[in-house]
Amino acid sequence: MANVIYTPNDILEQEFKTKMRGYDPIEVDEFLDNIIKDYEAYNKDLLALREENDRLKAKVDQLSKAQPSATRVKEAAPKSSAVTNFDILKRLSNLEREVFGKKLDQQASATQTAVDDIKNNYTQAEDDNEKTRQF
């Protein structure tokens, strides 16, 4: 500990001289007992924080040693993943063409049939109009 004048034990063993009109010794002892408890709590907190600090420093050192190898892996990854992504997109496109292409063909044939039916109905309606005009 840096610049600590009194330890909890020093406070505990401190004796004060009594004078005629001095402080109440019992009250002073109670106050000093509370100060000792605070000192001990601060010492525990300080020790725990130092241990955590040491642990975190060790972890940072470990991660900084592992980082250069991870950087090399990241540099190599984009090239292989780009090829892989391209292959995946190509396969996906082929699958979509296969699946949706059949549906589109079915829809196109249904649409063409509907158009043909409409044309036939229109032609038949025109023929009916011509026959009506002739009367």
From TrEMBL:
Family matches, as InterPro entries: Cell_cycle_GpsB, DivIVA_domain, DivIVA_fam
Keyword list, A-Z: Cell cycle, Cell division, Cell shape, Coiled coil, Cytoplasm
Gene Ontology biological process terms from the UniProt entry: cell division; regulation of cell shape
Keyword Transcription regulation carried by entry: no
Compartment annotation: Cytoplasm
Any one GO cellular component localisation term in the record: cytoplasm
Family membership: Belongs to the GpsB family.
Reported function: Divisome component that associates with the complex late in its assembly, after the Z-ring is formed, and is dependent on DivIC and PBP2B for its recruitment to the divisome. Together with EzrA, is a key component of the system that regulates PBP1 localization during cell cycle progression. Its main role could be the removal of PBP1 from the cell pole after pole maturation is completed. Also contributes to the recruitment of PBP1 to the division complex. Not essential for septum formation.
Cross-referenced PANTHER family: CELL CYCLE PROTEIN GPSB, CELL DIVISION PROTEIN DIVIVA
Name this protein carries in UniProt: Cell cycle protein GpsB
Species of origin: Enterococcus pallens ATCC BAA-351
